[in-house]
Amino acid sequence: MAAQCCCRQAPGAEAAPVRPPPEPPPALDVASASSAQLFRLRHLQLGLELRPEARELAGCLVLELCALRPAPRALVLDAHPALRLHSAAFRRAPAAAETPCAFAFPAPGPGTTPPPPLPAFPEAPGAEPACCPLAFRVDPFTDYGSSLTVTLPPELQAHQPFQVILRYTSTDAPAIWWLDPELTYGCAKPFVFTQGHSVCNRSFFPCFDTPAVKCTYSAVVKAPSGVQVLMSATRSSYLEQEGVFHFHMEHPVPAYLVALVAGDLKPADIGPRSRVWAEPCLLPTATSKLSGAVEQWLSAAERLYGPYMWGRYDIVFLPPSFPIVAMENPCLTFIISSILESDEFLVIDVIHEVAHSWFGNAVTNATWEEMWLSEGLATYAQRRITTETYGAAFTCLETAFRLDALHRQMKLLGEDSPVSKLQVKLEPGVNPSHLMNLFTYEKGYCFVYYLSQLCGDPQRFDDFLRAYVEKYKFTSVVAQDLLDSFLSFFPELKEQSVDCRAGLEFERWLNATGPPLAEPDLSQGSSLTRPVEALFQLWTAEPLDQAAASASAIDISKWRTFQTALFLDRLLDGSPLPQEVVMSLSKCYSSLLDSMNAEIRIRWLQIVVRNDYYPDLHRVRRFLESQMSRMYTIPLYEDLCTGALKSFALDVFYQTQGRLHPNLRRAIQQILSQGLGASTEPASEPSSELGRAAADTDSDAQALLLGDEAPSSAISLRDVNVSA
């Protein structure tokens, strides 16, 4: 029998209500304990109170949900042992005229002043209670989180909106970094920031901590007087009261992109939709380096990939304790202040975060096993923006520098390392942060570049990426979504079966270990890379006197930062060098390099350490005494503890540990304790190069820096006056 058309009905019959099909369940994420596949998260509200003296955050979280199936027994959220849950409650979804929730925070801990009472949930006279309590329990999940199971009422219907309200406090949370005033530049006020990538925000608030789930959010934050509060959202300044800040994010974002920073921060406009926030002493430098530039980069990105979707693009410069270089939080990029002295690195890092506004924030990888979908595409977009803004030669130089680092990392890990795949298998219990490496960025970039070459025209590929963003914006995707869209956009390539070309199959790109199957043509950058290669060849030529004389005639003070960094990286790759070569290098360059930015200085000092060149060791000490950043301390301590300079490392650490964040102190303790227990023979392949390469990415340091205690060793570190 022929099926009846859906627009017809039998006479007298009443049309059945049409319910939209349920959204497909999110991709299974082994890093999440949550039951995200059983619910639709519509919105979350956060009420937060910052208590810096107790290093405690008090929270009231309202999750607006609906079940995708009838009568779910429980809601399971990702949580963390640092979270202490005080209560859980259920509430029917409020009508439009009702107040959704008034926040009441848990009482502060001993020794702190309680906040003024806040109103409770509204109740109509004679109506049923607005909230009913729910039972809950917390169970172990992995070493980076717990599972929170909240029992739900049995009569809950599918697609019926409801709220779950959780009140909690968070202390010693991996996501929340409390800084005493002396760890800031101004040394005036305490500072706090959050860092959620990859799976840390489950210690900030209970959540579906998976990139497969996105929702809008709003927040109210109560802070001490005189402290500015910013979040990765729009701040409603017209609602602002003294010490109370209101925020709203109108577009769906994953949990890891909810971010907060509070401290002695001042703003300065740098464009029509951008401002920088920084401590007062840093604000003039930050403003002068970025004024006008960010709008130029945003406009270039919009020409390539479509309108910027997030309203404002602001940047906040964080103290040196920030554990990574930069983080692409929507509306508000977090970036480490230390990068301000390295202009070219600053430009590249900010442009990379700008690119994430389209690739990573708008369109997100659905699982941590495919982070290249965010990082590889953002790296490609970053280089298209720099090409449009600064020319192909500069872009090729920066690409050559990064690909050099990729091959250095591959040499350390081995070509058969499973983490060199684009589609990495995440085993249960493994922290996804461990998967972050240069393959995610640079091998991912090479694959995206290869796709652009298949279509024969970068502008046509830009058009494809623009359509891809428009199709998938505010959702999470898997690799097949990207590749299917690519072949649909270019049907002629699909007919040619480009996905199955021998040796370059798409499946092989995704699942083969080792280097990229193809790398970009960087010949347009040869005017900048040839001098670097020529100088390196001179220093490795014979006889040394003649080579040194020829090399000294080349004035590297006029080079770009990436040229000098690439040259020093090549020397690092060749270390240990003959002592007479190191002496000549020091005579020729040491004083000059000592006057350059930190990205240059740390590379020269690594050469000094790897070659046990004692005459320049005082420069290493001075550098470590002035640095509080992970990216400028960890590589040197790793090198010092690999060779014969462990006692020197201990002495420097003893003198400087009081100025380091406790998490960084523990990380260095771990390096020192491993070094003390190791052989005194220099390693042929020191591990610091891997650490240095990782420090050049924007979201890969958490695994080392989230407060793991130093392992036990035969020699106790108590003699070094280590304190937590």
UniProtKB/TrEMBL annotation:
One GO term (biological process): proteolysis
Cofactor, how bound (note): Binds 1 zinc ion per subunit.
Required cofactor names: Zn(2+)
CDD domains named in the record: M1_LTA4H
GO molecular function: metalloaminopeptidase activity; zinc ion binding
Active site: E353 (proton acceptor), Y441 (proton donor)
Keywords annotated in UniProt: Aminopeptidase, Hydrolase, Metal-binding, Metalloprotease, Protease, Zinc
InterPro entries: Aminopeptidase_N-like_N, Aminopeptidase_N-like_N_sf, ARM-type_fold, LTA4H_cat, M1_LTA-4_hydro/amino_C_sf, M1_LTA4H, Peptidase_M1, Peptidase_M1_C
UniProt signal peptide: none
Domain Peptidase M1 leukotriene A4 hydrolase/aminopeptidase C-terminal intervals: 527-672
Annotated residues for binding of Zn(2+): H352, H356, E375
Family: Belongs to the peptidase M1 family.
Name of the protein: Aminopeptidase RNPEPL1 isoform X1
Source species of the chain: Sapajus apella
Lineage: Eukaryota, Metazoa, Chordata, Craniata, Vertebrata
